[in-house]
Amino acid sequence: MSNAIIELNNITKKFDGETVLDNITLSVMKNEFVTLLGPSGCGKTTTLRIIGGFETPDEGKIYFDGNLINEVPPFKRQLNTVFQKYALFPHMNVFENIAFGLRIKKMDEQLINSKVEKILELFNLKNFGKRRIDQLSGGQQQRIAIARALVNEPKVLLLDEPLGALDLKLRKEMQHELKAMQKQLGITFIYVTHDQEEALTMSDTIVVMNEGIIQQMGPPMDIYNEPKNAFVADFIGESNILDGIMHKDYLVEFLGKKFECLDYGFGKGEKVDVVIRPEDLELKPAGKSKLEGKVKSVIFKGVHYEMQIVVNGYEFLVQSTDMATVGTTVGLTLTPDDIHIMKKEVIL
Amino acid sequence: MVIFIVFPCLLVVLYSITTKDSNGLTTIHFTLESFKKFFDPLYMNILWDSIFLAALSTAICLFLGYPAAFIISKANISIRSTILFLCILPMWMNMLLRTYAWMTILGNNGIINNILSFFGLPRLNLLYTRGATIMGMVYNFLPFMILPIYTALSKMDTGILEAADDLGANKLIEFKKIILPLSMPGVISGIVMVFMPAVSTFIIPQLLGGNKSMMIGNLIEKLFILNGDWNFGSAISIIMMVIILISMAIMNKFDVDKEGGARLW
What we know:
The complex is a heterodimer. Chain A has 8 helices and 20 strands. In chain A, α2 crosses α3 and α2 (94-104) runs parallel beside α4. Chain A has helices spanning 44-52, 94-104, 109-122, 138-150, 168-185, 196-202, 220-225, 230-235; strands spanning 4-15, 18-29, 33-37, 59-64, 67-68, 79-82, 156-160, 188-193, 205-210, 213-218, 240-248, 251-254, 257-260, 270-276, 282-285, 291-300, 305-311, 314-320, 329-333, 339-343. Chain A folds into 2 domains: 4-230, 3-Layer(aba) Sandwich (Rossmann fold); 238-343, CATH 2.40.50.140. In chain A, β1 and β2 (18-29) form a beta hairpin. Chain A is elongated and about 75 Å long. Chain A is of the alpha+beta class. By secondary structure, chain B is mainly α. Chain B is built from 12 helices and 2 strands. Chain B has a two-stranded antiparallel ribbon with strand order 1-2. Chain B is globular and about 75 Å long. Chain A binds chain B through residues 52, 54, 73-76, 80-81, 83, 85, 87-91, 100-101, 104-105, 148-149, 152, and chain B through 157, 159-160, 162-170, 173, 177-178, 181-182, 258-260.
């Protein structure tokens, strides 16, 4: 508890009668890179805005460093936000934008000067001080937005999908830069995105959200390899999800065949969801594997081939560097490690 | 356009630099006599007075109009359109009629004085005063101040106010450093759009001010209609035009290094 810098307890938020956040409880540790991940409308941005103070929760409590901050307005909270649309001040140049927060703190002019120059250099934007905002490219504007927040040396930095407007290459560069910066500065980052690859790349902890509820929380490897439910399994990476029956511990049946697996603790004969990642399936010549099917489609994705292979009526998504021809029959193999069992989703 | 705008302008210029001969017909004798006549203290007083009254009315419009525009921009959408409509509605009526209406309000037998005497209070001499002129100008030109300021305020991205909040700005700092600078183009637009008609109007001072406030507009009108002195009248008109162009140029200079916003051209 003492290591938690932000704590949300039972936060509920409604907009026009619709529940956007339903009893959210989560803790963010100091110096952690936490990502709130989920599809549009899942409540991740609302959660971030509640932490920032731009929205107030209908129920629940927020703590910052042990202090209750429900009633504290944004300008008094010791955190800063990088907004999705940057929100740079159009009537000020780059220097004034970055210095804005420092000026409010009534810092000595020379100190402001050195801090701003230092952070401009850190972002490879030396000598950009006098430029006007509308003279900058998207990538430059985004870096100024981050610099403007970071120069105030907040304990926590909130980032609301800051890389959304950048092209792919620049986005990937910035992901690495942000991660490196977070480690270097020792600031807690709370990051919001709908891009699961981005979340997996940068985070220490991922909080997967859907429809105002936390679906799963944990390190990227856990989220990816041990998804707790069908939503997480489907949202993170691609997956094949099938109906199965756990006959007993370590033995599951699906598509009419029995497979050894590593999961246990389910009831005998319990109906379960079976999750298999497309990259875990290996292509073998026909006639040699338990699973066999006809190739429906093949797409070249550069890094691998993406194929749809129909086995016993189920359409598997397979990613492999091997290629199969459409219309041929192929075999698919997998190891026990590749099979993930989850409790059946209760559909209300 | 040439016929209706350029040609009459040329005529005015022509009249300003010629004189009448003893028969009352215009000669082709070119002189700057009319312009020189204007620099008489009598007429200069009228000029400064016009500028003073116009500037005062503009200042009052700004003082009333900015808060009004600000409040309207903060109101919710449904009320906003109604209020704006109410602001613009009087402009649909002829300015002459609107000014006449003020005569009935301010006159000795007008609405205000009738209410006062009903309560046993003494009547006030409101009409035919400088105050009445200013009141008439403010009333007539206030929408021209409110609308551009409102436009500038409503176009502002509220996201940057959140950013300012996030960086530690309270509401006062937000206003001083963000809202006010960004609304400046609207303010300047408003000032020009009020000052221009205010300095050259003649109906308002004529109907409401009596002979207490003779403004440039009245002077020009008198010269043309009463005195028949088109030459002098034209000369003064040219001088007015120059003054207005200079004030617009000054205002534009202030607008040059500001962001976007309402420009006059």
